[in-house]
Specification:
Elements (H helix, E strand, L loop, with lengths): L4 H16 L3 E6 L4 E5 L2 E4 L6 E4 L1 H18 L5 H30 L12 E4 L1 H33 L1
Antiparallel strand pairs: 1-2, 1-5, 2-3, 3-4
Helix pairs in contact: 1-2, 1-4, 2-3, 3-4
Length: 159
């Protein structure tokens, strides 16, 4: 049945990831400039500012995760496959969060010539927290899927 609680959790996770594609992750300030950091680019925070660094991998991973969640909703007859897809979604989402909050700001942005030898101050916005929320939603959806599988196996033993 599609009306299960895990289907709603997966749908909310897909919505969070789709919205995260269009929300800015945060702003990065240096001694001389402000930069806007999104899932697609890091660019100067001025009107028509130039793109400093492409971060489209985050956007692509968010789209893949949203599609993965939608596919998982319609695999309700194959609960074990659905559970494996949910755990893959959690793992892939953790990779997105690590890339977004640690690798890009602390490792890669420091090597950009415009930001070299400057202190970076990062302020995160709502776009940084939506993938974290979707991790929790994927995890709890997996818990409900496993509980359903246990109930079905227990009912099969009683027959």
């Amino acid at each position: 049945m599609i009306q299960r609680i895990q289907s709603l959790l997966l749908l909310f996770a897909c919505v969070c990831l789709a919205v995260a594609c269009f929300m800015p992750i945060g702003t990065i300030t240096t001694d001389t400039m402000y930069y806007s950091y999104s899932t697609w680019t890091l660019h100067e925070n001025i009107p028509d500012g130039q793109t400093i660094y492409p971060t489209f991998i985050l956007g692509i991973l968010d789209i893949i995760l949203a599609v993965l969640g939608l596919v998982c909703i319609f695999l309700y007859k194959k609960r074990m496959v659905q559970s494996k897809i949910c755990m893959a979604g959690v793992l892939l989402n953790l990779i997105v969060v690590i890339l977004m909050l640690w690798i890009y700001p602390d490792v890669l942005f420091v090597k950009i010539p415009a930001m070299e030898n400057q202190t970076l101050n990062t302020q995160y916005s709502i776009g940084a927290f939506l993938p974290i929320i979707s991790i929790a939603l994927f995890y709890f959806a997996n818990k409900f899927i496993v509980n359903d599988e246990k109930k079905v196996r227990a009912a099969d033993r009683l027959r």
